[in-house]
């Protein structure tokens, strides 16, 4: 008998964490009862399961709807709006907390370092400041890395791949838990303050998703507290819909781009158009943007409200471009794609190496600290060697460092380092021409490219939007400088514009996002004239980059073996039929099935859904007419609560859909359920009719894969039954079947 | 035998227009062959049919794909991008043509009127100017109305309901024809220049849709010219996808809001997320916006590029709002909803009246001219009676009229009339406080409300966005004036801000658009701070308005009896089963069916699709296993080209999917096809296997309507087969079944 490791359908608590319950007393059914397990072809396994987005419209659901139809519907709709409002507000507040903390801590750190440099340089001693720099980098990073490594590993990295997966319909354990949020927020503060080459935007999106999942369920697994509200939102469908709101609120807060946030969530969920959900999502995003703007403006005590979100590219005047610049922009886009592809390749190789050889937790922490030290070292080296002196007042750096420059001058190379990466990006966009020596930028680009490359993949919470923008802005400005040299006498070449295009190119070439990124950048630049250059640049970058490899997030997801479904059917599967990709190893249950058999299949398979069949010849459960579909979680609850046909009179009037909702999302495993021996001996049965989904989606085995894929993606399915011309079950398709 | 009027599946040429072909020589099959026509329940009829959006993946399609797979795919993808580019460019050029024509003609008209007033007022004679005004109104309107009434009636009105219907999946005859485009463009110019209370935005969206449909097909029905390109785009699926691009390009050109355009198209198509289509749609929209900006800027000879689309609300400074203003905005929104509901009710009643009693074409033209005259009369009355004199220079009106004011003053009441409505909206947004007397606005609002109400529904090409914005901006400014009176000493109340909110409220209350309108307004105001007030205002307006009736477009569509599917299942149908709404009167064909029978069903029913069944007991075509689905248009082509089983060896190698594509979209009717008597006598048969869709979507008869509705909407279906547990066909569902 094949004993598969049972996969918990909860948010992924390993079985060790479960309290020790009396071992079940059931017997393993004899072989002839469950012959199907001696399968030749085993269904593809993955440790990641899908979300049950499809609504199970069984009799309990219908009863629930009919009970207090109008009243409950209005109440639920109102609750959805309230939850969306709070998702927006809380996401923004978390964003403010992160932004303000980073700002303040960075300011103190760099002011202190600046003073240390100024004081020590008189003695000609730069070793002390260097050591201070290393320490002020490594210490926060150590804290952040410890948190991520020991407290909540899921909080590592950007968080955007996790949110993408969740919206794609994949259940990654612990992705949307409060503990994850806490570690993520604190972690990103420590990482950015620790001078690592990264940003806070990706983590902000993840935070938004967690907040949404958390509020909407009205209970916290981390704190084991149930507020007993929003019980009607306790299923995968509602939760995923709220995470759509949360992700868009996160993007809105991170970039000050609510419409970009909406499109990001839509692009990743990529299912069908749900008008009311999308309206609420836009509302969430706008509330998030607004709250963040309000709080940050109040915090900075500004008279006029000019703050436009965390990711403030600053205002661009109506700076149009010449028609001959468009091909240049496209070339820059292509270069960004190339550069991005290279970045992805090297980063992925490095991470695979890390996965294989750097396994111990304490070594990962040391590694993170070392990278922080390396960042400091490169910074100091660059500042020391390049004497890029500019008169004060030109650059709005908060902490200008004089170094070896004359009085009333500051070192422009140093100013790239002695501030947060985001502030550096802003400078590169807005500094007047000639603010940086060509050498400075020429050296900075490969250094930062290298640093960001070794940083992404560390056990820290950090995103890659800002480093990509920074590298791109730097080489973009370089392009402008070269053009100014080459084509003197030509109309004025605005370096800020080229910095913007370079940033878009590099970012687009790395993350390969199209629609949402275009809209985010258009919104953030606040200038509709840049829409065309931006979209051309991103398209070039994507086409060039896609020639070599996938975007960084998709690559990460692929390397992690997550069954992620892209937007289009894989090319080679285009005209294949369902029959070819389906799993023939499908385990069915009869409409009235014995408890013994149910227990057997739950114990001996790891499948999460079973077609319900009838008209079975003898015990041949392989050939039956499809009548419905039942989930493992439902069977678990049925067994746990003893909802048997024979004891119907006891539970018939008392159960409702709440019986099932209350168990969500932590269901017991089959091993934890006690079924008394006599029930098995008396051959109790379960009547699926009440509980099953009576109209599961099904396709004929000759349907093309492209059609099935579209259905799967559009409806957010987890299982799809395959039938023949007589409606007999011949196979089943889950997302993993598309990726074989 | 029931003889239904055969509905042409073409773009709606009535049978009169068809050239007279020899009457077919077939005999009507005897009753016992087609017993099913004595149906008790007749399927719901509507003169509007659905689009065949679902791709028919039959053997011909597969052969075509396999033939030159990679090469053709790349070629098609490239072609799609080229078409999208040109959709954007051409839509913008048409927009420029319309905008520039209106601007120039209006300027000349009002300058001339202004001079006429100035000259004649010295004599105290205002009758001549008045008569001139009436003539310069009525004449263009007469031209426009003649065009619309006699040349192309489909071009009447806004055009947005037609585009909504098309994206909804309904085939309205002649909606996307070149002739329609021409009449629309010229018509809207005449209407706006004729001083009617309307705007050009809706017609612009329609123009975009026509351009898209036109270019993508590579041929023109109006000019009977086939350029023989893009033949692979000749089906409903591709055409509708391109119309998505075109509609968004139209919105982008009309409002300078490409992202709003994208969301408008997505909201109306409301199907599943198609990544590449949406990327191209955004590209189209941005190209459209950019081209329009470029051309208009060049035309105006401006140094700096500030022009932001036709619908230029002008720049708003970062004008935030106080927290106590938010409830005021929401109240204004609610008032807008109320006011909009009233507007819709009266306009709809008037239009129903027109439909019943004003039927002759020449009377409609007279009516339009009368309304133009009435507009002029009201304007003159208002200008004459209200002496709202302001010092020159305050108001950037191009043609200020002095009337009874002192020298160096101008009549502000007149300035509301002596310019295009769009220019008036802009003034109301940007004029400094005190530019208009309260009396002026107090009188203007009901006048314009009334005028716009009697204008919409005339036989002219004209939209309602601008009149709604104008009315709303006026009463918004009134609110600001009242508040300034009441709360003197409170912080400065910016009337422009209130004008914007009032405009949003009135427009939202009338059209009840949410997502796309919010994004359009946010983009157009160019100020992210207004996102929150705008979304709150629109939400209030929608909730308040929806309490009374549907939005104007939806009401029009409903009154026209178009089988339009909204975003959500109708409430009362929520838990109903498929069985209840399906049409049991379904006509099936066997896998190998006699030509006689096929001809019979084509002649005697008006159905457009037939399930293909097998395992039929005797001749009982009612109970068969569903094997596929065949469309009327396919059967027509099969009969026309004699693709019979018995003559297979003649055509087997020569036909391909092109055989069917070439006939699109004008198929012959069954009456026009000659089938020789001997073929019938020899009992020729058609083998459906090659031609039919082998994997049609189907649902079990116990599936809930909400599930079916979602499937229908998400996949853009036209037919959905209903089967029982044994896969036997029991019924069929089309969109009309949802609306019973």
UniProtKB/TrEMBL annotation, chains A, B:
Q: Which Pfam families match?
A: CBS, Voltage_CLC
Source species: Polypedilum vanderplanki
Gene3D superfamilies named among the record's database cross-references: CBS-domain, Clc chloride channel
Q: Which residues form the CBS domain?
A: 582-646, 692-740
- Keywords annotated in UniProt: CBS domain, Chloride, Ion transport, Membrane, Repeat, Transmembrane, Transmembrane helix, Transport
Q: Which GO terms describe its molecular function?
A: chloride channel activity
TM annotation in the entry: 81-102, 130-151, 242-265, 277-302, 323-344, 364-386, 438-458, 464-487, 499-522, 528-545
Task: Report the locations given in the UniProt record.
Answer: Membrane
The name this protein carries in UniProt is Chloride channel protein
CC terms in the record's Gene Ontology section: lysosomal membrane
Q: Which SMART domains match?
A: CBS (SM00116)
Could you say which protein family the record assigns here?
A: Belongs to the chloride channel (TC 2.A.49) family.
């Amino acid at each position: 008998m094949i004993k598969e490791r049972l996969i918990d359908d909860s948010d992924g608590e390993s079985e060790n964490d479960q309290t020790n319950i009396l071992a079940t007393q059931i017997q393993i059914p004899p072989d002839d009862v469950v012959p199907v397990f001696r399968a030749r072809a085993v269904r593809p396994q993955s440790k990641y399961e899908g979300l049950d987005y499809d609504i199970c419209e069984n009799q309990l659901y219908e009863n629930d709807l009919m009970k207090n139809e109008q009243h409950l519907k209005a109440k639920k709709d109102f609750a959805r709006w309230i939850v969306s409002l709070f998702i927006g507000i809380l996401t923004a507040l978390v964003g403010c907390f992160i932004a303000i903390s980073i700002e303040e801590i960075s300011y103190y750190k760099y002011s202190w370092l600046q003073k240390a440099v100024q004081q020590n340089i008189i003695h000609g001693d730069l070793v002390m400041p260097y050591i201070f720099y290393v320490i002020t980098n490594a210490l926060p990073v150590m804290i952040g890395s410890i948190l991520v490594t020991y407290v909540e590993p899921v909080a590592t990295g950007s968080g955007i791949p996790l949110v993408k997966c969740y919206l794609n319909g994949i259940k990654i354990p612990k992705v949307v838990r409060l503990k994850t949020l806490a570690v993520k927020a604190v972690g990103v503060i420590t990482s950015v303050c620790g001078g690592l080459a990264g940003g806070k935007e990706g983590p902000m999106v993840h935070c938004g998703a967690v907040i949404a999942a958390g509020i909407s369920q009205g209970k916290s697994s981390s704190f084991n507290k149930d507020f007993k509200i929003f019980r009607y939102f306790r299923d995968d469908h509602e939760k995923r819909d709220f995470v759509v709101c949360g992700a868009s609120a996160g993007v809105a807060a991170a970039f000050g781009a609510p419409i970009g946030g909406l499109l990001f969530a839509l692009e990743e969920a990529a299912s069908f158009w749900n008008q009311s959900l999308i309206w609420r999502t836009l509302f969430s995003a706008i509330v998030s943007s607004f709250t963040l703007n309000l709080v940050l403006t109040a915090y900075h005590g500004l008279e006029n409200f000019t703050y436009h979100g965390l990711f403030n590219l600053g205002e661009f005047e109506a700076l149009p471009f010449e028609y001959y610049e468009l091909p240049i922009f496209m070339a820059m886009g292509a270069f960004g794609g190339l550069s991005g592809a290279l970045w992805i390749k090297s980063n992925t190789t490095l991470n695979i190496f890390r996965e294989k050889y750097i396994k111990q937790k304490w070594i990962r922490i040391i590694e993170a600290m070392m990278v922080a030290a390396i960042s400091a070292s490169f910074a100091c080296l660059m500042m020391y060697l390049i004497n890029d002196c500019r008169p004060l007042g030109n650059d709005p750096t908060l902490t200008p460092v004089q170094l070896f420059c004359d009085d009333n001058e500051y070192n422009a190379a140093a100013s790239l380092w002695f501030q947060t990466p985001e502030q550096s990006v802003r400078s590169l966009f807005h500094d007047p021409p000639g603010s940086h020596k060509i050498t400075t930028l020429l050296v900075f680009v490969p250094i930062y490219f290298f640093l960001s490359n070794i940083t992404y993949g560390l056990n820290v919470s950090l995103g890659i939007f800002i480093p990509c923008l920074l590298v791109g802005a730097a080489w973009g400005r370089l392009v402008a400088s070269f053009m100014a040299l080459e084509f003197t006498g030509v109309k004025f070449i605005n370096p800020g514009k080229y910095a913007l295009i370079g940033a878009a190119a590099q970012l687009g070439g790395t993350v390969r996002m199209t629609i949402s990124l275009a809209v985010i950048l258009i919104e953030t630049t606040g200038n509709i004239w840049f829409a065309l250059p931006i979209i051309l640049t991103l398209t070039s970058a994507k086409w060039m980059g896609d020639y070599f490899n996938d975007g960084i997030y998709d690559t990460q997801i692929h390397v992690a073996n997550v069954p992620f479904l892209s937007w289009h059917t894989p090319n080679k599967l285009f005209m294949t039929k369902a029959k070819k990709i389906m799993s023939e190893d499908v385990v069915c249950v009869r409409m009235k099935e014995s408890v013994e058999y149910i227990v057997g299949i739950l114990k001996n398979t790891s499948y999460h859904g079973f077609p319900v069949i009838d008209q079975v010849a003898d015990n041949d459960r392989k050939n039956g007419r499809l009548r419905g579909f039942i989930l493992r979680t439902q069977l678990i609850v049925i067994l746990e609560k003893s909802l048997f046909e024979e004891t119907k009179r006891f539970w018939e009037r008392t159960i409702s859909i709440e019986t099932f909702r209350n168990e969500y999302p932590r269901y017991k495993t089959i091993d934890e359920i006690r079924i008394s021996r006599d029930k098995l001996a008396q051959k109790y049965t379960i009547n699926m009719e009440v509980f099953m989904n009576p109209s599961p989606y099904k396709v004929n085995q000759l349907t093309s894969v492209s059609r099935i894929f579209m259905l799967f993606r559009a409806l957010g399915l987890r299982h799809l039954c395959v039938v023949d011309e007589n409606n007999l079950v011949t196979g089943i398709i889950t997302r993993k079947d598309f990726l074989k």
